[in-house]
Structures are given as structure tokens and as C-alpha cells.
Amino acid sequence: MKVTSFNVVLDDLLNGLNDRFNQETLKLILTVTNILKLEPSQEDLLYLNNVFGIDSEQIQVEIMLLKNIPNIPSGTSSKTLHQWIDFLNSNNRTYIFLHFYKVIVLFATIPVTPCSCERAFSKLTIVKTKLRSTMTQERLDALMFLFIEQQMTTNINYDEVIEEFKVMIPTKRRLEL
Q1: Which terminus of the chain has a smaller tally of CB atoms within 10 A, N or C?
Q2: Which residues form the HAT C-terminal dimerisation domain (predicted)?
């Protein structure tokens, strides 16, 4: 009994790992690693063109420019990925290095596990009920964000939100209490 159930569980785990880390996923990880090192090969640039639709010549020019900038982030960890995003967001560098930024952001938004996606779909049935079936996509996105990111919403200072709302809405349109 133990051997047969153990082998089945072990087989499922191995199949899950093989599915998650297939050859295409590993190729993408290695390509983005080379991009973060600012040393992409021609094959890496062509692969990014196929996967993300990035112009390989443009990103090559951007990488040459980035090599000449002092104090750029170095390394290949996920922390470095976020440092690059912060670095490019400062002083509106995202417009200068648009293709490089697009690669990093698209890679950062790929979910590591399908759990977050499944959790979002399960929350969707709670947020969008039969009674709330006619809401716009913008409202649904906002409600889903609030529902999924409950940790962030618990830290909101309501007095600051009320003050910001007062500034945004003209005094003529406010209701008197």
C-alpha cells in the first residue's frame, strides 16, 4: 500500500516539475539572465523577438547604452530584476530603454506557480455574482485588486483617503452631513 501510493505521488511530483520547468521555460530564464548581465547573444535577441515581440536591434542598442551608464544594477537574482525596474523608473528612463524595460517587466509578471491565477479565479466568483453581473471591466478590476490584495487594503489610512477625496471633488458637489 505504502509503496504503490508513494510511487504515484512521486510520479505526480516529477511530472509537475517537468511540466513547470520545461525546456522553453529554462531557455527564457537563461535569456533574461543574459539580458540582466548585459551580455545577450544573437540567439537570445532572436528568442526575445519570438517570445515577447521585441525588436532585437533596438534592444541591442539599448544594452550598449546601458553599459556606459554608471551605477547600474548588477547580478541576476529576482532582487536585481526589481532593482532594474526601480532604476529605469527613476528619471523616466523607461522611455529611453523601452525594449529593455519591456523584457524585464514581462518576465517579472510571469507567475511562478499557477496558484495565484487559480486564487484570482476563485475570488472572481465571489466578487462577480449574478446580482453584480453588469459592472464595467474597470470596476471589476478595482474590486478584484481590493479582494486579492487584502493585506495591502488593511494598511490603508482612511483619513488620508478622505482628505485626498476632498481635494479631488469640488465643494459644490459634496454632500453636506
Answers
A1: C
A2: 97-152
Residue 107 near residue 81, CB atoms below 8 Å: yes
Cell 517537468 sits at which residue?
18
Determine if residue 25 is left, alpha or beta; phi over 0 gives left, psi from -120 to 50 gives alpha, anything else beta. alpha
Structure confidence by residue, pLDDT tens digits, 27-56: 888 888 888 888 888 898 888 888 888 888
Rounded to an integer, what is the distance from CA 95 to the centroid of its chain?
Answer: 19
| Element at 150 (helix H, strand E) | helix 150-154
Cβ atoms < 10 Å from Cβ of 109:
7
For the whole prediction, is pTM greater than 0.85?
no
Q: How many residues does the chain have?
A: 177
Is 18 in contact with 25 (CB distance < 8 Å)? Answer: no
